[in-house]
Amino acid sequence: MSNNCYLEIIRPGINSTFQDKGRFGLHHFGIPVSGAMDYRSYLISNALVKNDFKVGVLEFAYQGPLIKLHNGNANFCITGNVIFKIIKKNKDIIEGVCNKNYFIEDQDQIDILITKKSVFGYLSFEGGFVLEKSWNSVSTNTKAKIGPNDGNKLNSGDKIFLKKNNIENFKARYLKIDYKEDNEIRVLIGPNYDYFSKDSQDRFFKEDFLITNLTDRMGMRLKGFGLENIKSSNIRSEGIVKGVIQVPPDGHPIIMLSDYGTIGGYPKIANVASVDYDKLAQKIPNTKIKFKCIDLSEAEKLYKNYRDSISKVINNIKLIK
Predict the structure, then answer these.
(1) In this predicted structure, what is the pLDDT of residue 236?
(2) Spans of the chain, pLDDT less than 50
């Protein structure tokens, strides 16, 4: 337990929630996997503070929280593409660097200001937070009110207790990560692909779609030409998964994200390949994306290579001497 070492939330930020790998095997209860939107940044966050990869972290969108440490010291890091600063108790300010861990002491503050050309960032502490699990996960689904903090986002005045209150033999660690501007999203053909006209099928892979402001952890609404449904715009509800691209009657696709509803009655034209989900989740509104069709064997190979590349990146974490 924490022995009374905790973080005080001074400003909660935008959509700050606890997340981990997610909860599995509950679709028949209508409960989605949830979990970190950017799985790579989540894994790297835990690796930098020497946590197990299953430990829960704090995920934030656009602007993160302003927090103050009480009754101990801590080892933390922030991953993603984020601007933040550390405000020491003597008022000195350290400009933070992402993908690097820091040592802070009692009364120090962390001010997470904004994400840069991205949506999500991740805050982790060595040892993790004191959180109660729901179905073996601390992931928060605010629409279903599942997870820590009664399934709610963080609020000003909340206290987050840490499992470690004393960090000994601190060593600074750093990882260099390049952020590339790549707006091509690879997808697999969906089960209702033939519901759409040949012209719509062709244009789906040739034309850009705009990510709208109607985007959250549940789904991403796109805007483009209207896809022409030549069969039925409303089908019998059936099970869906993360990354499925549904098309409502207006013809503008909706991509289901980590807090997706587990059933849906709109035709499914395609499904985002797992290899590109992290990249998609970080795309900000008013970004144009383009879809590329791949087959299942290629998708499986690409995802394996992606997971291997994450492991390789983590193994290249450097100590700062």
Answers:
(1) 87
(2) 1-2
Q: Give the up-direction half-sphere exposure of residue 184: CA atoms within 13 A in the CB hemisphere.
A: 6
Q: Would you call 212 exposed, middle or buried from its count of C-beta atoms within 10 A (0-12, 13-18, 19+)?
A: middle
**CB 41 within 8 Å of CB 81:** no
Structure tokens at 314: 């983590």
- Residue 178: what pLDDT? 77
At 113 the pLDDT is 98
Dist CA 73 CA 91 (whole Å): 17
Whether 135 contacts 93, CB under 8 Å: no
Q: Which neighbouring-strand residues pair with 60? A: 121
List helix spans (H) across 164-216. 198-204
Positive or negative, the CA dihedral 154, 160, 163, 165 is positive
Token readout for 150 is 């009664």
List, by residue range, all CATH 2.40.100.10 domains of the chain. Answer: 184-310
**Does the CA dihedral 129-130-135-140 come out positive or negative?**
negative
CATH of domain 184-310: 2.40.100.10
Reported in sequence order, the residue ranges of 146-282 that DSSP labels E, i.e. its strands, are 159-161, 173-174, 184-189, 209-215, 219-223, 238-239, 244-246, 254-256, 263-264, 268-272
Beta partners for 123?
58, 78
pLDDT of residue 321: 58
Angle, alpha carbons 80-314-61 (nearest 5°): 15
